[in-house]
Every structure is written in structure tokens, then in C-alpha cells.
């Protein structure tokens, strides 16, 4: 029996799939006012990063907090202290791809911090009373939802094909987005 002799049938299956993706890199500026006027900055770092993702309009919002710690000297470099401040943020990450046929009532969202918030620059402000900090961060987001996929079905299976190619007909494969393929394959 050849492949042509088998009757190809198609089925639509409802499944959960990644129906939207996005990525955003950003640099933000924060101002922290320590209890003493800083003379010099000895170090600045970010710890305790926490976040969650929620669907919002045409994208996903990442809502989070982190602690900024600034080690600085004051009183003409004669003493040191660490200023600590917890900052909140909301980062809107637009979805660069959205499956228009997904079921919106089943949406779930997820975010991954592909670059944890990191202090790239810390300077004393022009007034000399605060510290201006530049922070880099990056997020990748996904929207998972129910959608329909079409699959080929061979009644009785395809055990006797012996490595022969399968003709799937005149399917419209030109519209497939190669960027959606998993990088780990």
C-alpha cells in the first residue's frame, strides 16, 4: 500500500500554545537621597528583585520591585554608610507576535528576566544631596492560550511507509513564521 492509497484526513485540535511573544531591554534612571550628603560613591548594587506579569492592552506588564544599595562616603571622605531604598516599577513589554485566533478567555502570561536589573552608573547629583543611578534590565514575555492546530490523520497509522515521504497536499506553509521555532531544537 502506498501513501497515495491511504486516505489523508485532517483534524482540528484545541491545545494550549505560545500565542504571543515579546522582549524589551530598557535603561532607567533612579534618584536616591541618602541621609548624609555624599562625597563619593564607593559602590552601587541591586538585590532582592521580585516581579510578576499581567496582560495589559497590546502587551504584558511586568510589575516588580528591587532594593538599591549605595555604599558612599561623606563628611569629606572620613565616614561611610550604605543607603538602601526599595523601588517599584512597571515595564510595558509589547507583544511582537500575537496569534489572532487564540481564545482570549484562556490567556496566561509569563515573564523572564533575561537580564536582571543591574546598576551601570552611579553619580552624585549636581545639587550634591542625592545619587543618580542608571539601571539596565531586560524581560522576555510569553502569552499562552488555547488555539486550534490542524493535524494530518492517517486511519490505521503509517507503519508501512518504509521511510517514504508524505504528501500533505497543498497546505499554505508560506505564512509560517520561522522566528517562532524553538531555538533549542
TrEMBL record:
Pfam families: CotE. It comes from the Bacteria. Keywords: Capsid protein, Virion. This is Outer spore coat protein CotE. It comes from Paenibacillus mendelii.
Amino acid at each position: 500500500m502506498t501513501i497515495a492509497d491511504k486516505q489523508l484526513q485532517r483534524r482540528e485540535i484545541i491545545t494550549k500554545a505560545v500565542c504571543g511573544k515579546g522582549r524589551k531591554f530598557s535603561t532607567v534612571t533612579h534618584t536616591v537621597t541618602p541621609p548624609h550628603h555624599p562625597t563619593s560613591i564607593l559602590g552601587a548594587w541591586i538585590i532582592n528583585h521580585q516581579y510578576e506579569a499581567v496582560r495589559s492592552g497590546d502587551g504584558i506588564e511586568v510589575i516588580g520591585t528591587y532594593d538599591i544599595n549605595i555604599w558612599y562616603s561623606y563628611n569629606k571622605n572620613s565616614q561611610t554608610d550604605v543607603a538602601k531604598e526599595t523601588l517599584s516599577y512597571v515595564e510595558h513589554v509589547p507583544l511582537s507576535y500575537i496569534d489572532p485566533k487564540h481564545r482570549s478567555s484562556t490567556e496566561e502570561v509569563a515573564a523572564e528576566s533575561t537580564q536582571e536589573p543591574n546598576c551601570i552608573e552611579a553619580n552624585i547629583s549636581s545639587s550634591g544631596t542625592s545619587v543618580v543611578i542608571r539601571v539596565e534590565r531586560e524581560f522576555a514575555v510569553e502569552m499562552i492560550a488555547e488555539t486550534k492546530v490542524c493535524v494530518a490523520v492517517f486511519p490505521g497509522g503509517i507503519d508501512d511507509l518504509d521511510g517514504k515521504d508524505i504528501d500533505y497536499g497543498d497546505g499554505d506553509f508560506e505564512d509560517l513564521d520561522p522566528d517562532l521555532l524553538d531555538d533549542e531544537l
